[in-house]
Structure formats: structure tokens, C-alpha cells
From TrEMBL:
Pfam families: Hydrolase. Keywords: Hydrolase, Metal-binding. Gene3D superfamilies: HAD superfamily/HAD-like, Putative phosphatase, domain 2. This is Phosphatase YniC. GO terms for molecular function: hydrolase activity; metal ion binding. NCBIfam families: HAD-SF-IA-v3. Its EC number is 3.1.3.-. InterPro entries: HAD-like_sf, HAD-SF_hydro_IA, HAD_sf, PGP-like_dom2.
Amino acid sequence: MSIKAVIFDMDGVIIDSEALWRQAQREALACWGATVSEEECETLTKGRRLDDIARVWCRHCRLAIAPQQLEALILQRIVGLIAVKGEAMGGVNETLAHFRRLGYRIALATSSSHPVISAVLDKLSLRSCFDVISSADDEAWGKPHPAVYLSTLDKLGLSAGECLVIEDSFHGFCAAQAAGIATVVIAPDCQHPRFAAAVARHRSLPELLQTRAEPALALG
């Protein structure tokens, strides 16, 4: 079955926001006297939905607050940081243009909430680049559950076999795999054995583009 659409994750694929997310979480937690490392952020919360992130930290740091309080403060912090410091990942515009020239539909499927999506698309002027935009905030479960990818397939009117996902996190990779969608991993640690089931693995979008291959050929 031929590929008709490419579905992008957002944080770490479209926008270089992982460090901003770590900063937002650490600053928010500090308001309640909790200290966590960047490594803990990377291990425990990367690729998760914001409400899941808040619950993880409330348990991990034994905070005597409602997770919704922490969630609201992290959201405030990350939206502000994106507005000031947000930058596109290298090769984003070229990659989107490349797939558009090849005639593929382009979708966004992210764990981030709608306010964060809006902040990113406005900051990077990319709103018009996506045919479909899906947030895990609209689902009962966030990544690694496949719900956001299944909803994206439904919006596109396509089957899993007609799409390709580009992800950077293990939670996102698991979500795409659970939805039955072939996945390309774009991450510095892409060669880690946990990504062995990916159809292709590249350290960056420019590296992916150097293959000049089409999604139908698995970008390998």
C-alpha cells in the first residue's frame, strides 16, 4: 500500500523545545520546593501529555498539591518560553516543503495541549503547513497510548498502512507502533535498541533529507 501522508510529532521534531520543557518543569516544581534533574525530566516525562507529567511529578516528589495546579503552572511557563526562545529544529522547513512537493498530505500529532500547539505554530509561522492537527489533550489517554495517532488517521481518512510517522521520543514511538503506523525516528539516540522496529533512524531531519528517499520507500 502506498504512503499518502506523513504525520509529524511536534516537540523535538518540529520545534527544539525539549530543553524548554525541562526548564518549565523544573521552574514550576521549584515553586513547591521540589528539585529534579534534567536527566529525570528526560527519563520520566519526555513525550508525555502535560496532565501525565504533572501526575508523575506529584508522585515522584510527593507533592501535597493537586496535579492540576502543577499542570497549570508548567503550561504557563512553557508557553512563555516558546514565545521568547522557541526555535525550529534544523531542516524543518525544508522537510515540510520536500514532502509537500512529493504530494503527501502532512499532519501533526502531538502530546502537547492546544495552547502549546498554537504557541509553536505562531512562533514558527507553520500553521498553514499542516492539513490535520491533533492533540492528545483531546483523547482519553496520551502517548504512549495510540489514541492521538488513531484520531489523526480518522481525520485524514487513511489507514495506518497509508501513513508514515516521524517521532523523536520513545513514548511517541510506542504510540505510533501501537497504532500500526510505520515510524521513522529522528533523534540523537536513534540507534538505541529500543527503536529497532523503526523503518528508518536518523539523527536529524537534514540527515533524513540527504537520503532523498520517498516515504513509500521507508526513507531508509
